[in-house]
Amino acid sequence: MKKFFGLLARFVPPYKKHIILNVVFNVLEAFLTLFSFALIIPILEMLFGLNNATYEYMAWGSGSIKEVVVNDFYYYVQCIIKTYGPSMALAGIAATLVVMTFLKVMTAYMAAFFMVGIRTGVTRDLRNQIYNKLVTLPIGFFSSERKGDVMARISGDVTEVETSIMASLDMMFKNPIMIVVCLTMMIVTSWQLTAFVLVLLPVAGYVMGSTGKRLKRKSLEAQNQWGVLLSNIEETIGGLRIIKAFNAEDKVKQRFGRENEEYRNINNRMNWRQALAHPMSEFLGTAAIAIVLWFGGTLILGGTSTITAPSFIYYMIIFYSIINPAKDLSKASYAVQRGMASMERIDRILLAENNIKDPEKPHALSEMKQGISYKNVKFRYADTWVIDDVSIDIPCGKTVALVGQSGSGKTTIADLLPRFYDINEGSITIDGVDLRDYRVADLRSLMGNVNQEAILFNDTFYNNITFGVDNATREQVEEAARIANAYDFIMASEQGFETNIGDRGCKLSGGQRQRISIARAILKNPPILILDEATSALDTESEHLVQEALDKLMKGRTTLVIAHRLSTIKNADLICVMQDGRVVERGSHDDLMTHDGPYKKLVEMQSF
Hints:
Elements: H1 2-11, H2 16-38, H3 40-47, H4 65-136, H5 139-142, H6 147-189, H7 191-238, H8 240-245, H9 249-275, H10 277-301, H11 309-350, E1 371-380, E2 385-395, E3 399-404, H12 410-416, E4 425-430, E5 433-434, H13 440-445, E6 447-451, H14 461-465, H15 474-483, H16 487-491, H17 510-524, E7 528-532, H18 540-554, E8 558-562, E9 574-579, E10 582-587, H19 589-593, H20 598-607
Parallel strand pairs: 3-8, 3-9, 6-7, 7-8
Antiparallel strand pairs: 1-2, 1-4, 4-5, 9-10
């Protein structure tokens, strides 16, 4: 339970007012429950002749508070019986019981009312924290995580926390209050019987607690398997074209079926264990009541008890009032164990370290005057160097192209510039200052990206072009679309710039998607441009339109170009040929063609 209270300390403080009101109404409910049942004792004693004593009114201060309250209560009950008869006295007590019960259920409702705000607020805050953390985590974090599993944590795991932990909060606050209040009254009524009861309760608590710990392990397995299932679904939807092309429908069905069956088996074991909670608590509670009934009854029958038979009945009613909250508390503890398993998975995101950090004293960066310089840069994802001692200078306003075989490190070189990853050795500088000495937001604000796969959002043309650019005017957006050769097909759509382009731009062709991506970069108007295979996936006509838009975009900017189609970069100021993480050749197109090196071979292969 230490982790549970640690969780509350993290997320509940903003809702202190709700908690205080919930506790107040729970305390009122507990007292109303006790004192409504307390009305039974004098009725039983006087109506059935068990108490023939005559009571006189006692003023405040003439005895202890307990003595005065009990005496005067009996006095007024005795007066009612003498004046109106036993039947009317019973009716009056019954009416009082109804009123007190009404007040009790209203206080219970108000306690639950204020708990709802805590429950929904905490889960909202939790989702916001996960999403905000996902956005700020470095790209490297997601290379070791399945997208489906991450989605499972922000959806299924948060829902599990809500239904398990948050739904149990009311029971976790309410039941201990009821138990403490009832236990106090039991001690007041008979401390000897209560001492005997306190021997029984820890035994029952140990049995139920050991079952709850095993439930947490099973719940963690279930949530991990749910992440596997979501990953499978996400991969299937993304690869549906290949699945159908290779007639692999049966294969993926069988794989999903196996994983789904495993999830079912884990859930079965977990739910069987949870289903055992209520019967076990019911049995242990009944056994405890039976033992106390036997022990207390034996004392009364033997004449050695310090309480009367009516008081013993009241004692048993209080004890039974403890059993139900104890059972609810045990069920809540099982639910909390399930929720804590989900919280462990969520914390893998929330507590993940972001190694891409701003410096304590950042240098100002609003423009670039000199250029970019890679000096003896080394970088690795694991144990193998992906970039090995690379040095490249990109003067301000010039275009540098990276070419080479797949896996040679071209894209990694580009990803190091906006600090998607941090280098292991060497330095990358802008105007002579290391990138790590600038604020990340300032650094990335100078850069525009156009990638091989145009990353668009399920939104309108207008919102995709203005993505990340604040306060853009309509005229600026239209001008950016014209420069990117996108204006005509946008205006030919149903609603022009307000037309929704579908999931990842699925309503557009590859060339159209790329031109929208270019228009977005044009609107941002960055001094540094990173083009990563921007035309390699296009047909000849689309490539021509996109290349024309790129030429307009690159004019006057410092550009780092990655290209497989060498015809698109022959006018670059510097071409660097990469192989196995190293720059093996560099120069202009004409210079490199005069040597019988890797670049010339690449050009000849493409020409062929």
